[in-house]
Known about the structure:
Blueprint: E1 5-9, H1 14-25, E2 29-34, E3 49-52, H2 58-64, E4 70-73, H3 87-107, E5 112-116, H4 140-159, E6 162-168, E7 171-172, H5 185-194, E8 200-202, E9 208-209, E10 212-213, H6 214-221, E11 233-237, E12 244-245, H7 246-257, E13 264-266, E14 275-276, H8 281-287, H9 295-309, H10 329-332
Helix pairs in contact: 2-3, 3-4, 5-7, 5-9, 7-9
The protein binds nicotinamide-adenine-dinucleotide.
Amino acid sequence: MNKTKILITGVAGFLGSHLAEKLHNLNYEVIGVDNMSSGYEDNIPKEIKFHKFDCCDFDNMNKIMKGIDVIYHCAAAAHEGLSVFSPQEITKNNLQASVAVFSAAISNKVKRIIFCSSMARYGSQKTPFTEEMEPSPVDPYGISKVAAEKILISLCNLNNIEWVIAVPHNIIGPRQKYDDPFRNVVSIMLNRIMQNKPPIIYGDGNQKRCFSYIDDCLNCLLPMINDPKLNKQIINIGPDEEFVTINKVFEICSNITGSNLEPIFKKDRPLEVKHATCSADKARKLLNYETKTSLQEGIEKTYRYIKKRGIRPFDYHINLEIKNELTPETWLKKEI
Length: 336
Ligand SMILES: NC(=O)c1ccc[n+]([C@@H]2O[C@H](COP(=O)([O-])OP(=O)(O)OC[C@H]3O[C@@H](n4cnc5c(N)ncnc54)[C@H](O)[C@@H]3O)[C@@H](O)[C@H]2O)c1
């Protein structure tokens, strides 16, 4: 019998590479795409077929889509804060790239498309965010995710193709890019502390978030591949316990690394949502979601990964398009 063929976009990234490894081990045929704008080459599992090109390249996307059964579309410039200052680059990689993937997938009659959206779809609404809330994104990142969701739903429903929208939030763990100055607060803090540089906190540090460990998130993403009851569902993925402040995250990172460095507080980042957490009720019901790794353990595992791979200088790999008095000086002056 032919193996089910899975395409994973963003396969050099954090989520895409873990998914690729798991699905390969489950005996699926895995094909990966990445433009290597982010992610790490050593994230890509050796056993899978890898193509390096941009998801916006419709002709190449159309070519490799032949015979694909299911797609996990993970590629994105997942830079929420930066999207306010580099909206062109962020929306190109989130919206235009997604539409190219969906269009090629639909024209090749794939069975199911699983799209990784983001908690940014909910904006600043009252927490915890639930799936039936009307999306109300406040920044170009969230807006591009919601636009991509709507195009996905419209085209899939018209063409009778199954879709699932996963809404992960603040995932942590090994393979996450830790030299990206624009996102991944836990990894940035650890990478800075390990370089003996004080962590940077935007605002007063009382913003609150929930963090999910990568394995807990994967446990939810894997059944999305073919479970009939998940067709046409939007599902939040991640814990709704341990709703912590960034100051608390700083404290945990300091304890784990044994650091006495005091944080540097910077101005609030424009449009940053103060409190963001999702309800996990639907994931518990449909996916048996369970938080198996605590925040403390998740940060410990991330720390061990960075320690093993080695600290790295921060890589300002995306240009600032809007430089003005609102742009964080950490980015303008490359202070991270
Ligand atoms: N990590 C999180 O906390 C989190 C939270 C919510 C949603 N998400 C979503 O999950 C998905 C995966 O996130 P991640 O943390 O693994 O990000 P990541 O940055 O680690 O991986 C994304 C990968 O996509 C690639 N990529 C970007 N634009 C591309 C393009 N135009 N063509 C081809 N490849 C491209 C990058 O090179 C990178 O390897 C994203 O869609 C993101 O928006 C992630």
